[in-house]
Amino acid sequence: MERLQLTLASLIFALATQTSYASSRLEGVVYSANEGDNSISEIELGSPTVRTTKVPIVPHNVQMTPDGKALLAVGMPVSSHARHNMNGMASMPPPAQGDMREEEPQGNLLVIDPHHLDQILATLPAGHHPAHVVTDLSGKHAYVTSSEDNQVTVVDIGQRRVVGTVTTGAFPHGLRLSPDGRELYVANVADNSVSVIDTRSLTEAARIPVGRAPVQVGFTPDGKRAYVSLRDDNQVAVVDTATRRVTSRIPVGRSPIQVYVVPDGSKVYVANQGSGSQPDNTVSVIDVASGQLMDTVVTGAGAHGVVASSDSASVFVTNTRDNTVSAINTGTQRVIATYHVGSSPNGITYRALR
Q1: Is the pLDDT score of 7 beyond 90?
Q2: 127 belongs to a structural domain
Q3: 262 neighbors 283 (Cβ within 8 angstroms)
């Protein structure tokens, strides 16, 4: 009788576990840029399987092209011994004098086969200390923040050459394309501003004061609002894109770095990294409708990069101090999986399975 009870209990537990797993089943592929060991990790969520591959740069950010056929990665060459501080930005050297800047090594934009990370399809120039990369809606052009050049470098991926540069505020870092593809919002860390770039004329159309040390931006799907993480204010600024003015500021965790609006436009996820001596391990969840903080999720030490699945069901966060990626269920606001990746993961991107 006792054996029968144990068997029934085991069966009930197994069924409950299967139900929980099925209701939060993860699909797709996530890629993390690991600065600590010059690698990119590929997480097959359905398996789950993690594969980590060395690359010839210190990758700070990765981005999937819209068609899912190429993975873009930016960073300084490994041979240059690039270093990044624990605030998630490349260290800022003293101003170059004369032609000293020309002698410094430039960073690279890698075009990688997302199915075979050891196959680099192209290595392109990306300016001095590239930080982030996004593409236009067609995936033809890549926009790279060249932090030390105070500019965005525009690369034609197909032609494999730089086709333009656009001056920004001081030390541009994170950037995102507006949903209609007409504007780029660029967070200028040392300028306390966001540059608005017209993608047709490749000029800076405006510069919006937002707050101290803006790091990354994110748009609502209708393009009417942009959210900007303010690292040194522990806030997220909300920008009305029509008036190009800050309409509110929302308190979040310590030293927020990346910010991401889920595709259905309901929530904003903000990774709070903290400092090197006192890392934070939280993600702030903002309700878009109310404009209020609705929840805080504990992930891992040094929460940094954020991306969402295309169905808005899951959010993925890199934890720089724990060498992990956390998966958050956006319905329950709970961590449902943790993946061990390369050292000091920073940028992150998602590829849907088609």
Answers
A1: no
A2: yes
A3: no
> Percentage of residues in the chain with pLDDT exceeding 90?
85
Q: Is the distance from CB of 272 to CB of 297 less than 8 angstroms?
A: no
Tokens at residue 343, please?
Answer: 């050292």
pTM: 0.89
Q: What are the phi and psi torsion angles at 157 (to 5°)?
A: -65, -40
What are the residues whose beta carbons fall under 8 Å from the beta carbon of 76, sequence distance 6 or more?
A: 57, 58, 82, 90, 105, 107, 108, 129, 130
Distance CA 59, CA 43 (A): 17
Q: Is 329 in contact with 313 (CB distance < 8 Å)?
A: yes
- Contact predicate 137/116, CB 8 Å: no
CB 339 within 8 A of CB 323: no
CATH of the domain at 261: 2.130.10.10
Residue range(s) defining the domain that contains residue 40: 26-88+105-351
Q: Which two tokens stand for residue 116?
A: 């075979």
Three-state DSSP string of 153-195: EEEECCCCEEEEEEECCCCEEEEEECCCCCEEEEEECCCCEEE
Phi, psi for 9 (deg, rounded to 5)? -65, -40
pLDDT digits (tens, 9 = 90+) for 256-291: 999 999 999 999 999 999 998 999 999 999 999 999
CA end-to-end span of the chain, whole Å?
Answer: 50
Residue 1 is encoded by which pair of tokens? Answer: 């009788």
Q: What are phi and psi of 6, to 5 degrees?
A: -65, -40
Count the domains in the chain. Answer: 1
Angstrom distance (rounded) from CA 316 to CA 329? 9
Beta strands in 168-275 (DSSP E): 172-177, 183-188, 193-198, 203-209, 214-219, 225-230, 235-240, 245-251, 256-261, 267-274
The one-letter amino acid code at 30 reads: V
Interior angle at CA 177, CA 176 and CA 181, nearest 5: 180
Quick: pLDDT tens for 52-65: 999 999 999 999 99
Q: Note whether 345 and 320 are within 8 A (CB).
A: yes
In-domain check, residue 13: no
